[in-house]
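Structure, all two chains, one model.
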Amino acid sequence: MASIDIDNVRKNYGAVPVLHGVDLTIKDGEFIVLVGPSGCGKSTLLRTVAGLEEVSSGEIRIGGARVNERHPKDRDIAMVFQSYALYPHMNVAENMSYSLRLRRAAKERIASAVSNAAGKLGLEPLLERRPKALSGGQRQRVAMGRAIVRQPKAFLFDEPLSNLDARLREQMRAEIKTLHRDLGATSIYVTHDQIEAMTLADRVVAMHGGIVQQVGSPLELYDRPANLFVASFIGSPAMNLLKGTYDASGAEAGIVLPDGTRIALSGPYALQSGTEVTLGIRPEHVVLSPIDGLPARVSLVEPTGFGIILHLSVHDLPLIAFTLDRTRLQSGPTTAIAFPPEHLHLFDGAGNRVVRAN
Amino acid sequence: MAIADALSTMPGTRRSLRDRVALRLEPYLYTAPALILIAAVMLVPLVLGLSYAFRDIQLLNPFSGGFVGLEHFRTLWGDANFFRALRNTLWWTGASVFLQFALGLILALLLDRPFAGRGLVQALVFLPWAVPTFLTGLNWAWMFNPVIGPLPHWLYALGILDAPNNILSDPSLAMWGPIAANVWWGVPFFAITLLAALQAIPRDLYEAAAIDGAGAFRRFSTITLPFLAPTIAITILLRTVWIANFADLIVVMTNGGPADRTQIVASYIFTQAFKALDFGYASAIAVVLLVLLMIYSMLIVLLRQTLLERG
């Protein structure tokens, strides 16, 4: 096991930059999830750590040692691919033992490592099978087994669950988490699925356009998104974002929406009055039918079983609210809403989070 | 079966003889058009050709045409020219297929890597395949001719030849002439098919193997070769049969000479049929070649089957 340091790593494909100076320090045994939309550079970053892509500049250290010039096989890492990348001409046991056989490990050590990994993953009855005789979930397990057998310094996962159906994905997600708890291995996990990011990660790295947008615990990203990208990317249904201007006049600071509606904030922010800002509020924080609220029209009601998603419009601004209250299914064409000040997020013109002045 | 359904839904009717015959014939009637077509265009000429092998057919003898049984095959068994042609065929086919395959594989592996101008190089590499074989044969015959061609002089300069002579007129070297032309002409076939197979191999596998610690040679032997094996088996089968039957280059370049040293079975058949005008004997040789190639094909198909099952 080892720490991984990514130091100002840049990557260009020809003239096209895909990583703009990424800095990231991963502690020994930490589970890091890189999350972002496709094309954000998360897979490229993972592949530079694996050594499958060369960095254009910057330094990558595994266990404190610079690995930029090392071949993938000399970095002592294991990788799980989205396509599993199992060797079709080898059976499960041969697939799992391939790296050890290439390193000419002792026969007994190989046998014990394979049976150990097979035991952890429930693969014992399948050891003689070839990959094509396995289901998707079983192949995924073999790919993980191949990584475990190595006992590498770090595990790299490249969207490992994307090819599985929803139920299997949930199950494997839990297994990966259990496995990480048992092995305590440093892991980097790439996904575009925010649920995987939230549930698996010790720390989430949200990426967009080749730039790290925010690094933090899952709840930190959810509760205090650093910018508009993280605010809108993390959470489903997504955070409501309303444009307005900051108004410090009066007893309480507030936001004035384009139609003149004023929404009260709790306490002053470090902003000039009249600054253009974006106000954010998560759908589950929108209070429905308060004593004195803004009038809102209900345009669509979506029951999810767990709760209800209400599509509203407030003075023609679209807004989404989420509630667990089933009586809302019968809500009439109009309702009222309120924005509790403690749940409001404020972003400045550049899209960065603004904190309270005190 | 429409009639069968109709009959079985009629309760209490006893089937008449005519109905039962119709029922039996029905599937054969449906397949008859295709079967008759196949028989007419494939089987009839084949059987006719085979029948010549058992008849005395000489174009210059109007009284020939009678049935002679196994007479031709007995003659063949004692025909030293035939056995020399058979040995030459093995040599010609083996060397041509091996060199075409080896060079084709190397070319395919080179073309599989991205480099600047790859599209143009690919197009150029595949060009010989488009050249008519007679032109290929003439061209190479001229190139081996020391009066107009450069090859003898180059080979002499490299010390491979003792004197800048035409290898096509040297009995011990003549076979290399058509083989060289054949390799030049046939490499693209292997390069195209192997390149297509190479590009179908998932790149992830190479990356996984690189991380697992496999060097270039191990990646080739554990990933590339097993993936290519079925394609290699089928292309070698096709090319072997093709080249064994392929007399064009030999007829154009050496006409079997000097001293029958480049006579292969296919060109021997050609000589017997169109020079000696003995169609009966030529057909008998052709039958033997057909049987040999069929045995060979069966072996390769079995090999490919086991390869596919293992993969």
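The mean pLDDT of chain A is 90.
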